[in-house]
What we know:
Distance between the termini: 15 Å
Order of helices and strands: HEHEHEHHHEEEEEEHHHEE
Strand content: 15-25%
CATH class: Alpha Beta
CATH architecture: 3-Layer(aba) Sandwich
CATH topology: Rossmann fold
Organism: Streptomyces macrosporus
Protein name: Uridine kinase
Radius of gyration: 17 Å
InterPro entries: P-loop_NTPase (IPR027417)
Number of domains: 1
Amino acid sequence: MLRTMTDRAHRDIRPVTWPRLTDAVADRLAATAPHDGSPWLRAAIDGAPAARPGRWADDLAEALRLRGRPVRRVSAGGFLRPASLRLEHGHHDPDAYYDLWLDTGALWREVFGPLGPDGTGRILPDLWDPVVDRATRSPYVTLPPGGVLLLDGPLLLGRGFPLDLTVHLRLTPAALARRTPEDERWTLPAFARYEDEVRPEETADVVVRADDPRHPAWTG
């Protein structure tokens, strides 16, 4: 049974190594059943860019493949809106970063819908390249039944995505500020708002504290 939000707020945090953490979460995913009867398992690795959620999601994907599970990696960075919409309120607006940058509709249409109970498994791995600001034109791919979607990126929780397991890579405000490049620190108020409104440390199924990247700790 899933713990309540109150229970999660008081979970013990234990030191762990990244390899042990990867194996433990891979084992948990391999033993998890989709909550809505879908043939596919959907998981999210949520974390600020400074926590490098994509790097760990790659390691987790490899661990799942070694366990015989097909995996498809999707990054939220491939589903950002065009610059004309993202930057409508300027280049450094933290509220726009929080509310407008991620194209949640496209993620539902191209990823979560096809992986629902009546889906086809045919998903688009990315849609938009924010660097050149144009469509990626990536081909559709099919995730076979029993496969696992691993979505990574910032500010993913609290959006209503049908996720079967969520992992939050947590940085304290001080660590986040320290590890965020100077030209990206304008995003920090968005993460403060995320902490206040979504409380990811309480709502995620697994929390990994990654202030010191050499010595993570987790909720087990």
